[in-house]
Design goal:
membrane, transmembrane helix, globular, transmembrane, transmembrane transporter activity
């Protein structure tokens, strides 16, 4: 593995340098554009093979633009003063507070208590709990690490053997509810903000919290209902008798009564979501809502200065910021215009009709995921390739972000989805079989396209097509 990383690093540096300084500048592009193109090629190789930490690769990419004179410092690092970065920070902090106080566990367990203690009831409960919790925590890995042990506890309580069909099914119910359903809500994962931040500002305004939810509502219903029946079809045991809720009851007893900090956190998050929904009408920036919510939690000593330092993944924040910088820089140095001329014969037919787009673009992303493992890298690559076509599209380009964010999250092979790997690690790889992963991923890939197709009439009614 170390040798592979070393080889990939050398290849990345050599290819990047060749493109930036050796390859003749093609017609329609400048030397600055070649420097940025070379750095993007190097960075993606580094990201794909995890040569060095992703956020360091991103920092070096932005620094290289300044060092070699492609753009100045203010232009290169401008994204870090944007509202998108601050809502990511505020959102991560709110999610960290919800996890710290135990609010997330309590919501999940209360939902599970309401449904029968058998495979059908508890798989549905886990999926519903994940869907409810998703918009509160904008980070997939903590949700995967938290939800799969709960699923394992239920699996053990129901007497399922490791990696059996029903054990695999409960694991996939956790992944489906807590990770797959992230595409339903803007605030459910930081990568949604990252993809949104890649596109021009005039299109970003369409992707407010409330608009995102409404535009993805048909997909949400299809993904939730279709996912439940898929898991039931693939994994339900022949005998599905209900047992007692002892496991859930025991966990709730250990949590005790709802604490002051939980109540405060729940109130702050609920108010924040309401303001995010009404943000466009109130002309209130989502970042301000998140930061005021964070400030309230700190003033009431629910979230401390140490929590702010230790419970937020600052490396992820920096990585996402460096990725988001690409969209503006590519336009600044003329890369988008040049790419448009190169890719137009292939891309234009796909983007010429929204119905074709929601079928073909996800398939392209599925295929790309076999090579580009990182969810955010895949989405970034696709978005950057499509940026040059925004001005010539017959529908609002913001819709592409919805399609991309719903399509990057597949797990046909375990290495293709990092949150799934986190979930497996949290239960010592004792729950889901390889065939269970592959079958459920294939089912999702089909359900995703169906859900997106049913979103198109809603997009038309909103005047976006």
């Amino acid at each position: 593995m170390k040798n592979l990383k070393l080889i990939a690093g050398i290849v990345g540096v050599v290819l990047g340098a060749l493109v930036a300084f050796v390859v003749p500048v093609p017609h329609g592009l400048t030397h600055a554009g070649m420097i940025v193109l070379g750095s993007i090629i190097m960075a993606n190789i580094f990201w794909i093979f995890s040569v060095i930490p992703s956020f360091i690769t991103g920092i070096l990419m932005l620094a290289s633009w300044v060092i070699f004179g492609a753009v100045d410092f203010q232009t290169s690092f401008a994204i870090f003063s944007s509202t998108t970065m601050w809502i990511i920070i505020g959102g991560l902090a709110l999610g960290a507070a919800a996890s710290k106080t135990g609010l997330i566990n309590r919501i999940a367990l209360m939902v599970m208590k309401k449904l029968p203690a058998n495979f059908k009831g508890q798989s549905l409960a886990i999926m519903l709990a994940g869907t409810i919790i998703s918009p509160m925590i904008p980070s997939a890995h903590p949700k995967a690490a938290m939800s799969t042990p709960i699923a394992k506890g239920i699996s053990d309580a129901l007497g399922y053997k490791p990696k059996s069909k029903p054990s695999s099914g409960l694991f996939m119910a956790a992944i489906w509810g807590f990770i797959v359903m992230e595409a339903s809500f803007l605030s459910a994962t930081a990568q949604n903000y990252a993809f949104k931040g890649l596109i021009p500002g005039k299109y970003q305004s369409v992707l407010s919290w409330g608009n995102w939810f409404v535009m993805m509502l048909p997909w949400t219903i299809v993904a939730l209902v279709g996912g439940y029946f898929l898991i039931k079809l693939l994994f339900q045991p022949k005998e599905d008798k209900a047992v007692s809720h002892d496991f859930v009851e025991k966990q709730l007893q250990e949590l005790g009564p709802m604490s002051r900090d939980e109540k405060i956190t729940a109130t702050v998050i609920a108010v924040a979501i309401i303001f995010w929904i009404l943000g466009s009408a109130l002309k209130l920036e989502a970042a301000i809502v998140a930061l005021v919510g964070l400030s309230v939690l700190v003033m009431l000593k629910v979230f401390t200065a140490d929590d702010f330092k230790n419970r937020i993944s600052w490396s992820s924040v920096i990585f996402i910021g460096t990725v988001m910088a690409l969209g503006n820089i590519m336009k600044t140095v003329g890369l988008t215009t040049w790419l448009y001329k190169i890719l137009a014969p292939v891309i234009s037919p796909i983007l010429g009709n929204i119905w074709i787009t929601v079928i073909v673009l996800p398939i392209i992303i599925y295929l790309l995921k076999f090579v580009v493992v990182s969810l955010i890298s895949t989405g970034t690559l696709v978005t950057l390739c499509l940026l040059p076509f925004f001005n010539s599209m017959t529908y609002n380009p913001a819709l592409l972000i919805l399609i991309i964010t719903a399509s990057v999250n597949i797990w046909m092979l375990s290495y293709m989805d990092a949150p799934v790997i986190t979930g497996q690690a949290a239960v010592d790889s004792s729950m889901v079989s390889r065939s269970g992963l592959a079958k459920s991923s294939l089912g999702y890939m089909i359900i995703n396209i169906i859900g997106l197709l049913l979103c198109v009439p809603v997009w038309m009614m909103l005047g976006l097509v």
